């Protein structure tokens, strides 16, 4: 069900409420959707665990809120001046004080155990391949050091460059291509200011600092095209440096690697020739 296909405002609001109660989101693709409720569909086991933990916390905090609200309503009704004209002179109750101290501690433990386990499991495991992502104002550059030093830049497609089906402000001229069911280490850095490499469907969000390498990872278990954006304010065109990742079968990735070695060789050669010309001119 797509809420953006509903034109009647009242019907859209009703559908939104029904979908909220049923736990249904409008997101059916790995990109933001109009009227979306919740996270984008998870493409990694880690993001699925993050989503599950978020849902657990939502249920827990809702239960606490309803319980506290019920206590407040009960106290206002049961102990108001009309219903209780002679108030109790009790100053304290040992049992109640123990309960309202112990129960919050237990709740925090229930939250802490899965939280710390999830945080611990986000440490980078042994990777099958490595990609280096470098943030520039305002685009991303990528390198594949394990595959013949493939290197290219990924710039946002302008509206007149978009093909049918390509989302506005999220599509790039070159996509990061990775194989499915493969642990990918991502080295994140920047060349000018602080950026952030964020891919919601992968559960990945890592700051990129100039002169420093940060490390994150993902293991996509579904093929498809996934979109993210720079998530750190980095200048006037901060919102125009998207991230596009294509997850493909391993055979398709191997074919892409061979093609990329040829396609981006001319790009590297042009940069090398330009550097040589500049060095020659400077020496003169």
UniProtKB/TrEMBL annotation:
GO molecular function, one term: oxidoreductase activity
Subcellular compartments: Cell membrane; Membrane
Cofactor note: Binds a copper A center.
Name of one Pfam family that matches: COX2_TM
Signal sequence coordinates: 1-29
Gene label: coxB
Keyword Transport included in the entry's annotation: yes
Membrane-protein topology: Multi-pass membrane protein
The protein's role, per its UniProt record: Subunits I and II form the functional core of the enzyme complex. Electrons originating in cytochrome c are transferred via heme a and Cu(A) to the binuclear center formed by heme a3 and Cu(B).
EC number: 7.1.1.9
Cofactor list: heme; Cu cation
Record domain Cytochrome oxidase subunit II transmembrane region profile: where: 31-126
NCBIfam families from the UniProt entry: CoxB
First-level EC class: translocase
Transmembrane segments: 56-77, 98-120
Keyword Transmembrane attributed: yes
Source species, domain of life: Bacteria
Protein name: Cytochrome c oxidase subunit 2
Listed GO biological process terms: ATP synthesis coupled electron transport
Reactions performed catalytically: 4 Fe(II)-[cytochrome c] + O2 + 8 H(+)(in) = 4 Fe(III)-[cytochrome c] + 2 H2O + 4 H(+)(out)
Keywords in alphabetical order: Copper, Electron transport, Membrane, Metal-binding, Oxidoreductase, Respiratory chain, Signal, Translocase, Transmembrane, Transmembrane helix, Transport
């Amino acid at each position: 069900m797509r809420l953006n296909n509903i034109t009647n405002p009242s019907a859209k609001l009703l559908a939104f409420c029904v979908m909220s109660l049923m736990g249904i989101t409008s997101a059916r693709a790995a990109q933001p959707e109009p009227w979306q409720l919740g996270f984008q569909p998870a493409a990694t086991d880690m993001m699925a665990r993050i989503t599950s933990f978020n849902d657990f916390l939502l249920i827990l905090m809702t239960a606490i809120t309803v319980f506290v609200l019920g206590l407040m309503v009960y106290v206002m009704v049961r102990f108001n001046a009309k219903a209780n004209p002679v108030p109790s002179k009790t100053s304290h109750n040992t049992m109640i004080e123990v309960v309202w101290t112990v129960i919050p501690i237990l709740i925090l433990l229930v939250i802490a155990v899965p939280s710390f386990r999830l945080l611990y499991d986000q440490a980078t495991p042994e990777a099958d391949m490595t990609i280096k992502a470098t943030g520039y104002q305002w685009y991303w550059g990528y390198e594949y050091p394990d595959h013949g030093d493939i290197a290219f830049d990924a710039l946002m497609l302008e509206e007149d460059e978009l093909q049918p089906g390509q989302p506005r402000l999220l599509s790039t001229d070159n996509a990061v291509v990775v194989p499915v069911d493969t642990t990918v280490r991502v080295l994140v850095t920047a060349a000018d200011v602080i950026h952030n490499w964020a891919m919601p469907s992968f559960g990945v969000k890592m700051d990129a600092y100039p002169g420093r390498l940060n490390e994150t990872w993902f293991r996509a278990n579904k093929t498809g095209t996934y979109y993210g954006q720079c998530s750190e304010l980095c200048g006037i065109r901060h919102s125009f440096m998207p991230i596009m990742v294509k997850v493909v079968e391993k055979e398709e990735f191997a074919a892409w690697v061979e093609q990329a070695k040829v396609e981006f060789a001319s790009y590297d050669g042009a940069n090398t020739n330009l550097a040589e010309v500049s060095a020659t001119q400077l020496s003169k």
